[in-house]
Amino acid sequence: MVKESGCNCLCFVEGTIDMISKKWSLLVINALGNHQVLRYSELMNELKGISPKSLADALAELCRQGLIRRESVAEIPPRVQYSLTRDGQQLRKAIEPLFQWALTKSPKGSRRCVPAYRTARAHIVQENSEEEERGTGQKRICEKPG
Prior knowledge:
Strand content: 15-25%
Mean pLDDT: 76
Number of helices: 7
Strand order of the largest sheet: 3-5-4
């Protein structure tokens, strides 16, 4: 935080907060972080419940913000693929503690999530952790309903 005359100024993060607070942004970033490179159709499969327009809008905004890279591959048929930029990778790493903190704030035994997100594979955060040592390398952002 920047301190100006005795108060904390957060003005410089306003645009970032606006962008990542959009419904699908964090899941798009997480999906690309889990897979490094995905095509549009693969992202649609990862993010079950997202409409094609919502995905296109999210990808365009994340590209404008410099968090993801759109690469056109000259093939027949033409192919477009998406990946995280260095800033996108840093953001993904930075939001992991936010996910963990949010898990501690949910009532014990009732970790709720949006039903459309429960089945999305992007709902899983891949990381190097104890779970990877056990062979999965994955953990859910929230628990599956029991």
